C-alpha cells in the first residue's frame, strides 16, 4: 500500500523527534464512526450482512486508512472483531457489551496520559432504549507531538460522545442535559487546552427544538466551551443551517447534514485549524457496495502549530487528582517571569508554586511537607526542572522536584527516586507555570514555558 500524505508527514515528524527536536507544527486526522454494534437481535440497523463480518471489515479499513484518532460509538458486542483486524498502536479497552458498556472506544496512532469514562446524568427511553446502556462520553489527553527528551510536548484533549437519541420532549431534554454535562466538563478539565469533541450527537441544527449542539458553538454561545463545528466552517461557509438537508447513506456530498459532528478549539499552547472535511462513506463499504454501518463516517484533517507565547513540557506522574492549568492565567501576560519559586515536600512532592513581580501567586497541591523557596534575580530565569516519580498506594505520583536557574542555582523538594527525567525550556524560553493533576500532593505535572 502506498503511504498516504498523512503517513509521510507522521514519518517525517518521527524522524525529527528521534533527533530530539521539538516538532512545532504538523497535521493529524480524525474519524468519527458509529459502528452499529448493538446485538443483531436488538437492532439490525438496516445494514445488510452479518454483523461480526461487518465489524471485522470496519477494523481492517481502520488499519488500511490509518486515520490518527478514531472515535467509535455503539462498539458493543462485536468489538473484538474490530480490534482483531485493526492495527492502531493505542486502543482503549472495551467497557463491555450490552448492557454493561458505553459503546465508546478510541483507536489512535498517538498515546495519551489520561483516559476517563463518564456516564450521562440523565437519559430518556421515550423513543427507544437509551437507558439500556451507560451511554456518556470519554475524555483523553492525547500527545500529538513530543520529543524523546520530554522537554516539550503538544497535547490536545479529545472527547468521544454518544448523546440521547429521539425527538420526543423527554429525549430533547435529556440530550440538552448531556451536552450541558460535557460542556461543563470541558470548562473544568480542559482549562487552557485545545479540544476536539466528536461522536454521535443525535442532533441536527435544522431541528428547531434540538438546540443542544448550538450551545457548543462559540458563535452562538459566548458562555459555552467556545467550539467550532468543522462541517459548518468548511462546508457551510460558517452559516448554521436552518433548513433540513438530511444525508443519504452513503452520503452523496458533504453539504447535507448528519447527526455525527466534529467540534474543536485552539488554545495558547497549540493552534488548531480544520483543513479538510468529508463524509468517508465510500471508504467503508462492503464488497458488494452495501454500507457497513447506518451512519456516515465523518473525517476531518487538522493542521496544528505550537503556541508562540506559551508551550509545555511532557508530563511526569500519574493520573489521579483533578486537572489544573496555569495557561489561562498566563495567556496575554506581558511579563510572566517568576521572581520567587516556592515548593513543599517531604516523602513526596506536596506542592509547587511561584510568584510573579506583580504579586500574582500560582500554587498547586496540598499543605503538607516542608516549604522551601528561592528568590530569582532580575536577569535570572527558571530554565530547567528535574522530576522524579514513584508509587504510593498503588498510584504513580511525583516524589521530587529540582529547579535550576539560568545562573546555575537550584531549589529542591521531596525525595528523589530512581525514575527521574529532566525538562529543559527551549532556548530563549523560561518555565513560568504548571499544568497537571493535584490533590493533597502533586499527582501529575508538566511545565509551562514562556519567552524570556
TrEMBL record:
Keywords linked to the UniProt accession: Endonuclease, Hydrolase, Nuclease, Signal
UniProt GO MF annotations: endonuclease activity; phosphatase activity; sphingomyelin phosphodiesterase activity
UniProt signal peptide: 1-22
Pfam families recorded: Exo_endo_phos2, Jacalin
Any one biological process term the GO annotation gives: phosphatidylinositol dephosphorylation
CDD domains reported for this sequence: Jacalin_EEP
Cellular-component GO terms for this entry: cytoplasm
Superkingdom to which the source organism belongs: Eukaryota
Keyword Nuclease: yes
Domain Jacalin-type lectin residues, every copy: 321-451
Keyword Signal included in the entry's annotation: yes
SMART domains (UniProt xref): Jacalin
PANTHER family tied to this protein: SPHINGOMYELINASE DDB_G0288017, SPHINGOMYELINASE FAMILY MEMBER
Name of the featured protein: Endonuclease/exonuclease/phosphatase
Taxonomic source organism: Parachaetomium inaequale
Lineage: Eukaryota, Fungi, Dikarya, Ascomycota, Pezizomycotina
Amino acid at each position: 500500500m502506498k503511504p498516504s500524505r498523512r503517513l509521510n508527514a507522521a514519518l517525517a515528524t518521527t524522524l525529527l523527534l528521534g533527533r530530539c527536536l521539538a516538532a512545532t507544527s504538523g497535521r493529524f486526522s480524525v474519524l468519527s464512526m458509529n459502528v452499529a454494534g448493538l446485538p443483531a437481535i436488538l437492532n439490525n440497523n438496516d445494514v445488510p450482512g452479518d454483523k461480526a463480518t461487518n465489524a471485522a471489515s470496519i477494523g481492517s479499513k481502520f488499519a488500511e486508512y490509518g486515520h490518527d484518532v478514531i472515535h467509535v460509538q455503539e462498539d458493543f458486542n462485536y468489538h473484538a472483531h474490530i480490534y482483531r483486524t485493526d492495527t492502531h498502536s493505542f486502543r482503549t479497552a472495551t467497557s463491555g457489551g450490552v448492557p454493561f458498556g458505553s459503546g465508546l472506544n478510541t483507536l489512535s496512532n498517538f498515546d495519551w496520559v489520561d483516559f476517563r469514562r463518564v456516564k450521562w446524568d440523565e437519559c430518556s427511553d421515550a423513543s427507544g432504549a437509551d437507558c439500556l446502556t451507560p451511554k456518556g462520553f470519554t475524555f483523553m489527553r492525547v500527545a500529538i507531538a513530543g520529543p524523546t527528551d520530554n522537554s516539550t510536548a503538544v497535547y490536545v484533549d479529545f472527547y468521544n460522545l454518544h448523546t440521547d437519541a429521539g425527538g420526543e420532549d423527554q429525549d430533547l431534554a435529556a440530550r440538552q442535559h448531556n451536552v450541558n454535562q460535557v460542556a461543563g466538563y470541558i470548562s473544568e478539565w480542559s482549562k487552557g487546552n485545545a479540544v476536539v469533541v466528536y461522536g454521535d450527537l443525535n442532533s441536527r441544527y435544522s431541528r428547531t427544538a434540538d438546540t443542544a449542539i448550538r450551545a457548543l458553538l462559540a458563535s452562538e454561545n459566548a458562555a459555552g466551551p467556545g467550539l467550532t463545528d468543522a462541517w459548518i466552517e468548511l462546508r457551510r461557509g460558517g452559516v448554521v443551517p436552518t433548513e433540513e438537508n438530511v444525508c443519504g447513506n452513503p452520503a452523496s456530498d458533504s453539504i447535507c447534514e448528519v447527526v455525527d459532528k466534529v467540534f474543536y478549539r485552539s488554545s495558547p499552547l497549540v493552534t488548531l485549524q480544520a483543513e479538510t472535511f468529508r463524509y468517508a462513506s465510500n471508504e467503508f463499504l462492503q464488497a458488494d457496495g452495501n454500507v457497513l454501518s447506518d451512519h456516515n463516517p465523518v473525517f476531518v484533517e487538522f493542521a496544528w502549530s505550537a503556541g508562540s507565547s506559551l508551550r509545555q513540557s511532557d508530563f511526569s506522574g500519574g493520573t489521579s487528582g483533578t486537572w489544573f492549568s496555569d495557561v489561562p492565567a498566563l495567556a496575554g501576560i506581558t511579563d510572566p517571569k517568576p521572581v520567587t519559586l516556592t515548593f513543599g515536600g517531604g516523602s513526596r512532592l506536596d506542592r509547587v508554586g511561584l510568584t510573579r513581580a506583580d504579586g500574582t501567586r500560582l500554587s498547586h497541591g496540598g499543605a503538607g511537607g516542608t516549604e522551601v523557596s528561592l528568590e530569582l534575580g532580575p536577569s535570572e530565569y527558571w530554565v530547567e526542572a528535574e522530576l522524579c516519580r514513584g508509587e504510593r498506594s498503588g498510584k504513580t505520583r511525583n516524589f521530587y522536584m529540582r529547579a535550576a536557574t539560568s545562573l546555575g542555582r537550584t531549589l529542591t523538594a521531596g525525595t528523589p527516586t530512581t525514575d527521574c527525567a529532566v525538562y529543559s525550556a527551549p532556548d530563549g524560553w523560561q518555565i513560568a507555570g504548571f499544568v497537571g493533576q493535584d490533590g493533597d500532593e502533586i499527582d501529575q505535572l508538566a511545565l509551562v514555558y514562556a519567552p524570556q
